Amino acid sequence: LSFTFRPKKNIPEGSHQYELLKHAEATLGSGNLRQAVMLPEGEDLNEWIAVNTVDFFNQINMLYGTITEFCTETSCSVMSAGPRYEYHWADGTNIKKPIKCSAPKYIDYLMTWVQDQLDDETLFPSKIGVPFPKNFMSVAKTILKRLFRVYAHIYHQHFDSVMQLQEEAHLNTSFKHFIFFVQEFNLIDRRELSPLQDLIEKLGSKDR
Description:
Blueprint: H1 16-29, H2 33-36, H3 45-67, E1 79-80, E2 86-87, H4 103-119, H5 136-164, H6 168-184, H7 197-205
Antiparallel strand pairs: 1-2
């Protein structure tokens, strides 16, 4: 099984969401991540979360893409984040009962599932004035919770490869942005974050 490098999910240029993404990129450049993740004044929370979720999906897609040759059926026969955490896949529709599978298979299921959500216009409307559905927040939370698991797997099982590729600064910045964002809006349950708790505390303490 080879990880198919998914096409970047593009936010249409000239759209309001595109403006928001540009705003996010500009504030990120300032180096103050706590401030960069805050909801810009007068903006819709759902839309802000949608734009950032798409951005995190693209980032993780890229980061995982750099280490796929090291994440194989043999090296990672289970989807884990250290010895204490193992994930089994279920999406509630195609696979209802959680299945144990290799990390590359799990991540393939996960990224395909996320992409399907992002491409669903009823969940992630790209047209101006089309409202977000009532269940948007719970869908976004599930997406982010699952994307977190890819970071957790990379940190626990592939950090050596990341270092060899000299990608650690890139990975750390991406993850820090992700964590500050989910903390700002309380999007992932603390218990779900425990595989990287020490790292999260370390990243946070540098900014107090």
